[in-house]
């Protein structure tokens, strides 16, 4: 019943794993391509006169039409919605100087930590790089908590979702030119 089977396993394996979704986005951010990604998205921004054309705001006739309208508007105006989010975020930073100071301090602390070989000593203990990142993360979170970053984050997200949902629901998508691409920023899985 038991036979010796010889299988030749020699050779080379050329396995390339393609990262998808969030991993791919994080790879772009780590490689410094995030600004190019955002600028590429912003290059597709639609004219503001078309975005706020009041004659195109109508209530949807039915729920299926509302759903189609919503997704079509999200697809068509995604760069405009990103500008609205960035504008609200900038408004929060400008109107909250303590939060602006906390964000700048966190940014420069991270740059200092990643700039080279740093050794931190607490008493007679020398911290490893992982421990340094943990201390930095805890200090940054505490600083942002003291500056009220949680409230600002929820305000910005809430205001953005409200504005985007209202615009995408009531802007008549039938008045938009037809699009060949469907959801260009969403990757097929």
UniProtKB/TrEMBL annotation:
The chain crosses the membrane at residues 79-110, 133-166. InterPro entries: Prenylated_rab_accept_PRA1 (IPR004895). This is PRA1 family protein. The keyword Transmembrane applies. Belongs to the PRA1 family. It is found in: Cytoplasmic vesicle, Secretory vesicle, Synaptic vesicle; Membrane. It comes from Papilio xuthus (Asian swallowtail butterfly). It holds the Pfam family PRA1. PANTHER family: PRENYLATED RAB ACCEPTOR 1-RELATED, PRENYLATED RAB ACCEPTOR PROTEIN 1. The keyword Mitochondrion does not apply. It is a multi-pass membrane protein. One of its GO terms (cellular component) is synaptic vesicle. Keywords: Membrane, Transmembrane, Transmembrane helix.
């Amino acid at each position: 019943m038991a036979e010796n089977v010889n299988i030749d396993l020699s050779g080379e394996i050329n396995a390339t794993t393609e990262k998808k979704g969030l991993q791919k986005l994080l790879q772009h951010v780590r490689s410094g391509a995030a600004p190019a990604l955002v600028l590429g998205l912003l290059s597709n921004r639609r004219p503001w006169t078309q975005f706020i054309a009041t004659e195109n705001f109508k209530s949807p006739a039915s729920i299926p039409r509302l759903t189609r309208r919503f997704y079509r508007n999200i697809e068509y105006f995604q760069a405009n919605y990103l500008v609205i989010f960035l504008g609200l975020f900038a408004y929060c930073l400008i109107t909250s100087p303590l939060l602006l100071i906390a964000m700048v301090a966190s940014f420069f602390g991270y740059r200092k930590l990643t700039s080279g070989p740093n050794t931190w000593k607490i008493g007679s203990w020398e911290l490893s790089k992982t421990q340094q990142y943990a201390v930095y993360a805890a200090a940054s979170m505490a600083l942002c908590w003291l500056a009220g970053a949680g409230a600002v984050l929820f305000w910005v997200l809430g205001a953005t979702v409200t504005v985007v949902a209202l615009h995408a629901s009531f802007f008549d998508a039938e008045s938009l030119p037809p699009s060949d691409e469907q959801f260009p920023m969403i990757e097929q899985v």
